[in-house]
Every structure is written in structure tokens, then in C-alpha cells.
């Protein structure tokens, strides 16, 4: 690897002397080579070129560690680099290199703000390299999205790229499809996407007319009636509920049924869901109620996840519990987990500040290797061992005191909380104590603002409360972030008209006037302003000059501020609760000690914390109680910290098992989904020929004849059978028997004739109607039965543990049933196709 960095250095000494024109020639030369040679062959030259262009365009020259990161990413690995080490810039190397293949590279970020920031910022490098860069936002139109996905490089958020995929897979016309086949994807903050969010699938819903609300309410009623620990048991760790023998009996009795598993009218799912809604999912923690809707709260960021629904009927059960509009009237049209979505890419890579502790999971599930890169400058942050208090009250008192202490000195402090609720509580506490502070709001529309708040968390006297990963992706600069400050000041002057309070220089007064004449509309001004500093090159000259002038002033004072904050010890990060995984704790700690800065981190925990209560075990409690008599005095020891970490490891393993379980169960559905989407796609692209249709019908006829001969009745085809009966009636059984062994040519020709008649008939009403609408009808039929299949799968999934009771392997059982259900779906699709196309000509 040293050799490789050396090679780049040699290249770059030559490039440094070249003119822009010559650099462009070099770009062209390498592009040509990329068409004939393997990409890895041109890595040193290409990386050196990107480095040089970045230096000229952004003033950032890739560090050696970033060059190394580039190679690992190109090889499809996960790179761990600490916060602030420059992952955004590192990714430009493999991204631009792979974009040379012209198959599209996706760069996935956790929110719209980061996608836009990185697209605009890094876009300057790509544009100079002659590569097109697109940005997909949730608000983009279909045409904009298509254009962005067809760019060489596309910046997009994790949820948008998945929903676009799901929407594409249920498009009824080719013009609605926005993505092209996947090639290479780099995921930023990969652990947050592939691990933290892996348990809730993304669901594309469709309006449902036949959701059975009565059933949900009856189930809720029965759930209220059942007694905890008598009729059911709650498994807090697994967030699961089981009915006991007597609970099962009671529920049956109440319903007046013999079984809860009647396949025509199953109840088990509804009852269990009603119980889970009641005993596991908590209002204002797991979800909130807003505008008559249940919105999921992300357990890690505290952010509200719009557009997401819990699967397997849980969401509806919670809606019934809270008496809000049920189902939004929806049912699942299509769904996929992040796990299965991202494995669709032939090549996948990722970046994070905290990947190592989840290494095994990345390896086992995604076959991704984690490489840890050293920091460019040595890390000097001090992580103190935890302070353990007996009671929560004592803990919060201590948090308040520590905050006061930092604030009075002027040392910035960032306080991480595990939930929105706790952060609001803390904010109240600070208000009473007259400590000025910022609290990070979890609403999606505030993400950009959130970044600005986090960016200023390193200023003197800054007190910032944040739910755990709020503002992820923005680094905290000691002494404050100059460009954000300039932006804020500009906003105050230009938008909020606070000029009186701000003294401006003469030239600035002049520029200010010019801005208002140069900008014709306020909207345009606001837009350019909100995109600063990335819009500097494209905004009006007056705004640019004004920005630069303010920037110069503010950066002068920043140098002084920066060194003062450093002398105070840098940023103090205080965690108020250990999280379920060490990774999230590390994420929080990593906010301090950026790029060799000084800083500290410490967790204040109590025996009453959730994690301790569920996983800490009696030992820790007894031990602490024994050692500490006075409740306000904490215990601080490495031993205790490590036993806490052991508790966390236990939770990590639990959660890993759960995710693995989700993954394993989703696997068969994933195979089916791929198969179905593939077929759909062929139909969409009109690759389905007349032949295909006949083959379909003929094989269906074969099967029907066989089953007819065997005289096995088949419920699903009763409608069709009566139609077929008419045909069969003209044959004697003997005739059929002999013919079916060969090819039942007579039947086939009837089929062909019917088809011709059908076309002729529809042409009477509208010329060419069938030809042009056949694909749409196929797709419609497919979607109806696919949705039904998904519903059956949900039921099978949720009840398999019960029904396979005593069996060794419920997963195997599940797979068998999943296969049968899928087969049934295909049979239904085929019979419906024949039905629509041959036997029911005028009925639409
Ligand atoms: P990460 O995503 O790893 O936390 P970012 O990509 O947000 O870090 O970068 C953090 C900061 O480091 C940015 O302000 C960026 O300008 C700066 N930076 C990154 N790479 C370099 C470099 N090679 N030279 C100078 N500054 C850099
Ligand atoms: Mg980042």
C-alpha cells in the first residue's frame, strides 16, 4: 500500500505543473484507457488526477489515508474513518473512477441535506472531470429523478433510492420508471442504514378497500381482557409476546371459535398484534400521534420516520389502540428491507466512523470486509470511564452540575440523550437553571437547521442537547463554523432585516444595495443563500463579494476563538445513557476530538436506566448499592464500565440475531421478488411476445387437463373451470386421455381461435385496443396476486412458530409454505390471464 501511495505522489508532482488544458487531456486519455483496461490498472493515475483537480477546485488535497480509503472502497469494502477525517472527499476517488464505466454510481447518504451538500460540494470535482452528477430528492419530479439516475453519479438518500426502486417495480408504464440497472453504490454512514434501520422494512402501500376494522377492534377488546403473565408473556428483550395455553383458550372462548388458526378466518395475528400494541409499543417513545396518524419515531435518532409503517399488521393494531384512522386505508403493495435492497448492487462499499464493532454482521450478512484506517493526526480525546449513580434523579443532578461547570468556564458541552422525551426534559431543567442552550429538533424539515446548530456546538459557551445521532454527518469545529456563521449573518441582514443591529463597512453597504437590485426575486435570493457556500460560483457577484467580505472578518476572530476553546480542553461530550450498542456510544464520543483536536467524553448512567434494568443483571446493582451508601455519590471504575459494555454486547447479540432472523426469513421472499420484478420488467419493456402468451396458456391447459383427468377438484379455478367445462364437454374422456399424453392439439387450436376472435371483437370497439393495452392488463393481474401473496406470507411468517410447534426448523417450514404460496400466485396469474383474455371479452 505504501508503494501505491508513492506511485500517486510521483504522478502528482507531474500533474502539479500542468495547465488546466493539459489536465483535461490527461482526463481524456485515462477515460479512453478505462474502456479497454481494468479500472484497477489506472488507479494511481486517476487518483492523482482527482487529487490535483480537487486541490485546484476546492482547495482540498486528499490525504494519504483518503487515498488508501479510496482503494478499499473501490474494492467493495467498508472503510472506518473517524468523524471529521474527510470521508466525503475520500469517496470522490472510487466514485469518479467507477463512473467511467458509464453504468451509474450511486452515493447514498442519510438525509436530503447531506445528499445536496455533498452533490454540490463534490460536484465541482466531477464536473471538471467531465462526469455528470445528479441529485435525487424526495421532492423531485419523475423527470428530474430520471435525469439524475441517468447521470454518471447520483447522490440520493437511503430511503428515496429504495422507494424509487419499489415504485419502479410497480410501474404500469415504462415512462414511469426512473432507475436503471444497478452497478456500484457507496453508502455513507453505512452502519446507520444497514444495521440500525435493518429491522423495519420499507413498505410501498396501496389503497385497500377491504381492511377488516371490526376485527382489529375486537382483537383490541380481547387483548384488554387478557391478563399479563396469566394469559400471555411479554419478552421485553425480544420485544415479543406469546400466548400461554390458558390465554389461547380464553381468546378462543371469547371469540366463540374452535381455533385461532382457521385459515378462512385466522385470528392469532390480530390478537398478538393487539397485545404488542398494548404492551410493547409505547406512545411518545416508539411512535407519536400526529394529525390522526401514527408516526414511527426512529429509536436511534429520535427522528420521525414519515412514510414508514410497521409491517405484519402491527401498525394497524397501534392505530386501533390509539383510535386513529386505520391503515390510512392502505395495504402493502410491495416491500423490501435495506438488507435485501442493497445486496442488489453488484458492487457495494461503505463508509462510517463506527463499523468495527459490527464487523461480524457486515461480514456474515453482506460479505463486506471492514477496514479501519488510522486518523491523519493522532487522536488525543480522553474518554473517561462511566459515572454510575444509584438513581436517575442523582444522575440528572450530576448532569446539571457538570453542564454548569463547563458553561461557567466557557467550555462547549454536547449532551447526548437517548430519546426526544429526555432531551426535552433536560431542556426544561436548563431553562429553570438559566443555562442558555440549543436543543436539536427531530423533525425531518429541520435537518438543515440541525446541521447548523451542530456545526456551532464547538463555540465558547455553547450548550447543546442532541438526541443521539441528530445532525449526523456534520463535524463540530472548535470555535464555531465560519461558513455557517457567515450564512447566518447574511440571513439576518438580507431576510430578517436586522441591519440596524449589525454594523457594516462602507463597501458592504454598497454591496447590500447591489444585491437587492441584482436579484429580481426574493425566492432566487433565498435559494442561493440556502445553498451557500456551494452556490458561490453560480450566485450573483454582489452576493459572492458580500459573502467573502464577511467571511474574512469572521475567520479572523475564529482563529482566536479556536485557540481559546482548545485551551479550555475542547468539546466535552456527555452521554446521559448508554445505548443498546457500543457503536452509537462511539458515534457520540466521536463528536469530540476531531482532526487531532483536544476533547473529552464521559457517560453518566444510573441503575434505573433502561439498559441496566433489562440487561445489567442483579450483580451490578448489588455491587453498587453495597459500595455506595450516599445516593448522590457516583461510582467510577473501569471494572464497572466493562461490565456495562458486557451488557451492551449482550444486547448487540440479541439484536443481531433478530436482524439475522429478519434477513433469513426475507431471503425467500427476496428471491421471489427478484423473479417477479424481472418478469414485470420484461412485460414493461414489451419483451413479452405473442408466443409467451400462448406458451403460458398452453401449459395452463395441460395442467388443467391433467387435473381434470385425475378428477381432483381445485377451488381456485372454479370460475375458469366452468368455462373450460364447456370445451371439455365436446370431448370424451377417452379422447382427452389419449390426446393429453401427446399434445392436445385440438384444444390448443381452440385456444388460438379464441384469441383471434377476442382480438377481432375488441377491434370492433376500438382498433388496436388489445395490442396496446395487453401489457397493462398483464401487470394489473400480476400486481393483484402479488399483493395477495404478500398478505399470505405475512400470515405465514407471523404464525409459523406456532404452527410448526414441535418441528425442528420453522424456517424450513416457512420456506416450504412460501414456495407453495408463490406457486399458487403464479397459477392464479395464469388462470386470470386466460380468463380475461379469452373468456370475458367485453367485461372491462
Ligand atoms: P467525515 O464524513 O469523515 O466525518 P467530512 O467529510 O465531513 O468528514 O469532512 C470533515 C472536514 O474535513 C470538512 O470540513 C472538510 O473540509 C475537511 N477535509 C476533508 N478532507 C480534507 C483534506 N484532504 N484537506 C483538508 N481538509 C479536509
Ligand atoms: Mg460524513
UniProtKB/TrEMBL annotation:
SecA family profile domain sequence ranges: 1-636
Keywords annotated in UniProt: ATP-binding, Cell membrane, Coiled coil, Cytoplasm, Membrane, Nucleotide-binding, Plastid, Protein transport, Translocase, Translocation, Transport
Localization, UniProt: Cell membrane; Cytoplasm; Membrane
List of residues binding ATP: 66, 84-88, 475
GO molecular function: ATP binding; protein-exporting ATPase activity
Record-level GO BP terms: intracellular protein transmembrane transport; protein import; protein targeting
UniProt cross-references to SMART domains, sorted A to Z: SecA_DEAD, SecA_PP_bind
Listed SUPFAM superfamilies: Helical scaffold and wing domains of SecA, P-loop containing nucleoside triphosphate hydrolases, Pre-protein crosslinking domain of SecA
Catalytic activity: ATP + H2O + cellular proteinSide 1 = ADP + phosphate + cellular proteinSide 2
CDD domains registered for this protein in UniProt: DEXDc_SecA, SF2_C_secA
Entry keyword Coiled coil: yes
Annotated Gene3D superfamilies: Helical scaffold and wing domains of SecA (1.10.3060.10), P-loop containing nucleotide triphosphate hydrolases (3.40.50.300), SecA, preprotein cross-linking domain (3.90.1440.10)
Known EC number: 7.4.2.8
Entry keyword Protein transport: yes
InterPro entries: Helicase_ATP-bd (IPR014001), P-loop_NTPase (IPR027417), SecA (IPR000185), SecA_CS (IPR020937), SecA_DEAD (IPR011115), SecA_motor_DEAD (IPR014018), SecA_preprotein_X-link_dom (IPR011130), SecA_SF2_C (IPR044722)
Membrane topology: Peripheral membrane protein
A single cellular component GO annotation: cytoplasm
Function description: Part of the Sec protein translocase complex. Interacts with the SecYEG preprotein conducting channel. Has a central role in coupling the hydrolysis of ATP to the transfer of proteins into and across the cell membrane, serving as an ATP-driven molecular motor driving the stepwise translocation of polypeptide chains across the membrane.
Family: Belongs to the SecA family.
Known partners and oligomeric status: Monomer and homodimer. Part of the essential Sec protein translocation apparatus which comprises SecA, SecYEG and auxiliary proteins SecDF. Other proteins may also be involved.
Record protein name field: Protein translocase subunit SecA
Source species of the chain: Mallomonas splendens
Amino acid at each position: 500500500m505504501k508503494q501505491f501511495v508513492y506511485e500517486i505522489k510521483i504522478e502528482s508532482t507531474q500533474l502539479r505543473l500542468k495547465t488546466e488544458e493539459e489536465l483535461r487531456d490527461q482526463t481524456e486519455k485515462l477515460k479512453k484507457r478505462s474502456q479497454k483496461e481494468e479500472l484497477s490498472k489506472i488507479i494511481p493515475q486517476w487518483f492523482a488526477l482527482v487529487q490535483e483537480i480537487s486541490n485546484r477546485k476546492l482547495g482540498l488535497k486528499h490525504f494519504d489515508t483518503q487515498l488508501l480509503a479510496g482503494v478499499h472502497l473501490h474494492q467493495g469494502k467498508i472503510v472506518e474513518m473517524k468523524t471529521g477525517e474527510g470521508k466525503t472527499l475520500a469517496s470522490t476517488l472510487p466514485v469518479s473512477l467507477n463512473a467511467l464505466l458509464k453504468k451509474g454510481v450511486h452515493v447514498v447518504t442519510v438525509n436530503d441535506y447531506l445528499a445536496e451538500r455533498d452533490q454540490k460540494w463534490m460536484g465541482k470535482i466531477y464536473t471538471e472531470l467531465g462526469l455528470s452528477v445528479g441529485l435525487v430528492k424526495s421532492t423531485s419530479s419523475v423527470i428530474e429523478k430520471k435525469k439524475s439516475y441517468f447521470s454518471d453519479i447520483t447522490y440520493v438518500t437511503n430511503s428515496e433510492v429504495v422507494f424509487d426502486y419499489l415504485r419502479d417495480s410497480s410501474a404500469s408504464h415504462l415512462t414511469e420508471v426512473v432507475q436503471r440497472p444497478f452497478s456500484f453504490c457507496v453508502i455513507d454512514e453505512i452502519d446507520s442504514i444497514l444495521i440500525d434501520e435493518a429491522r423495519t422494512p420499507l413498505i410501498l402501500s396501496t389503497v385497500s378497500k377491504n381492511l377488516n376494522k371490526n376485527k382489529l377492534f375486537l382483537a383490541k377488546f380481547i387483548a384488554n381482557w387478557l391478563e399479563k403473565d396469566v394469559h400471555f408473556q411479554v419478552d421485553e428483550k425480544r420485544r415479543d409476546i406469546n400466548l400461554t395455553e390458558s390465554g389461547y383458550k380464553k381468546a378462543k372462548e371469547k371469540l366463540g371459535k374452535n381455533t385461532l388458526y382457521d385459515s378462512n378466518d385466522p385470528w392469532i395475528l390480530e390478537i398478538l398484534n393487539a397485545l404488542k400494541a398494548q404492551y410493547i409499543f409505547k406512545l411518545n417513545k416508539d411512535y407519536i400521534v400526529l394529525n390522526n396518524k401514527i408516526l414511527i419515531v426512529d429509536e436511534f435518532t429520535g427522528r420521525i420516520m414519515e412514510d414508514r409503517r410497521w409491517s405484519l399488521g402491527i401498525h394497524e393494531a397501534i392505530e386501533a389502540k390509539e383510535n386513529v384512522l386505520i391503515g390510512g386505508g392502505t395495504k402493502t403493495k410491495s416491500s423490501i428491507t435495506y438488507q435485501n435492497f442493497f445486496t442488489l448492487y453488484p458492487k457495494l462499499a461503505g463508509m462510517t466512523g463506527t463499523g468495527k464493532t459490527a464487523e461480524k454482521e457486515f461480514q456474515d450478512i453482506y460479505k463486506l470486509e471492514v477496514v479501519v484506517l488510522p486518523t491523519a493526526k493522532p487522536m488525543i480525546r480522553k474518554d473517561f470511564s462511566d459515572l454510575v449513580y444509584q438513581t436517575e434523579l442523582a444522575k440528572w443532578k450530576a448532569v446539571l452540575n457538570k453542564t454548569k461547570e463547563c458553561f461557567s468556564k466557557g467550555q462547549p458541552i454536547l449532551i447526548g440523550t437517548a430519546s426526544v422525551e429526555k432531551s426535552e426534559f433536560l431542556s426544561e431543567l436548563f431553562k429553570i437553571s438559566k443555562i442558555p442552550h440549543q436543543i436539536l429538533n427531530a423533525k425531518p424539515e429541520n435537518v438543515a437547521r440541525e446541521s447548523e446548530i451542530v456545526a456551532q456546538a464547538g463555540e465558547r459557551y455553547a450548550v447543546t442537547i442532541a438526541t443521539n445521532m441528530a445532525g449526523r454527518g456534520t463535524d463540530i469545529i472548535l470555535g464555531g463554523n465560519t461558513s455557517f456563521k457567515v450564512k447566518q449573518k447574511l440571513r439576518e441582514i438580507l431576510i430578517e432585516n436586522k441591519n440596524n443591529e449589525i454594523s457594516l463597512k462602507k463597501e458592504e453597504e454598497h454591496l447590500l444595495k447591489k444585491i437587492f437590485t441584482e436579484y429580481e426575486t426574493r425566492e432566487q435570493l433565498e435559494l442561493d443563500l440556502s445553498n451557500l457556500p456551494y452556490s458561490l460560483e453560480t450566485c450573483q457577484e454582489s452576493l459572492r463579494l458580500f459573502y467573502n467580505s464577511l467571511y474574512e472578518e469572521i475567520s479572523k476572530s475564529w482563529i482566536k476563538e479556536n485557540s481559546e476553546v482548545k485551551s479550555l480542553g475542547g468539546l466535552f461530550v456527555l452521554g446521559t445513557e448508554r445505548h443498546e450498542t457500543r457503536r452509537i456510544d462511539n458515534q457520540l464520543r466521536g463528536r469530540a476530538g476531531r482532526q487531532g483536536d483536544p476533547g473529552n467524553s464521559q457517560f453518566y448512567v444510573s441503575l434505573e436506566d433502561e439498559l441496566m434494568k433489562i440487561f445489567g443483571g442483579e450483580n451490578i446493582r448489588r455491587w453498587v448499592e453495597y459500595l455506595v451508601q450516599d445516593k448522590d455519590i457516583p461510582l467510577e471504575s473501569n471494572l464497572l464500565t466493562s461490565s456495562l459494555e458486557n451488557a451492551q454486547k449482550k444486547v448487540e447479540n440479541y439484536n443481531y440475531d433478530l436482524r439475522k432472523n429478519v434477513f433469513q426469513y426475507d431471503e425467500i421472499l427476496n428471491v421471489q421478488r427478484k423473479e417477479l420484478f424481472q418478469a414485470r420488467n420484461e412485460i414493461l419493456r414489451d419483451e413479452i411476445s405473442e408466443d409467451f402468451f400462448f406458451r403460458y396458456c398452453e401449459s395452463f391447459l395441460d395442467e388443467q387437463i391433467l387435473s381434470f383427468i385425475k378428477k381432483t377438484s381445485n377451488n381456485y379455478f372454479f370460475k375458469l373451470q366452468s368455462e373450460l367445462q364447456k370445451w371439455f364437454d365436446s370431448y370424451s374422456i377417452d379422447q382427452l386421455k389419449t390426446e393429453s399424453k401427446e399434445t392436445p392439439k385440438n384444444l390448443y387450436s381452440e385456444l388460438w381461435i379464441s384469441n383471434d376472435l377476442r382480438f377481432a371483437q375488441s377491434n370492433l370497439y376500438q382498433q388496436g385496443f388489445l395490442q396496446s393495452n395487453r401489457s397493462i392488463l398483464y401487470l394489473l393481474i400480476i400486481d393483484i396476486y402479488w399483493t395477495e401473496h404478500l398478505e399470505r406470507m405475512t400470515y405465514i411468517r407471523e404464525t409459523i412458530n406456532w404452527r410448526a410447534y414441535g418441528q425442528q426448523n420453522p424456517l424450513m417450514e416457512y420456506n416450504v409454505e412460501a414456495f407453495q404460496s408463490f406457486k399458487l400466485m403464479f397459477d392464479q396469474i395464469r388462470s386470470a390471464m386466460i380468463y380475461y383474455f379469452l373468456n370475458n371479452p367485453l367485461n372491462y
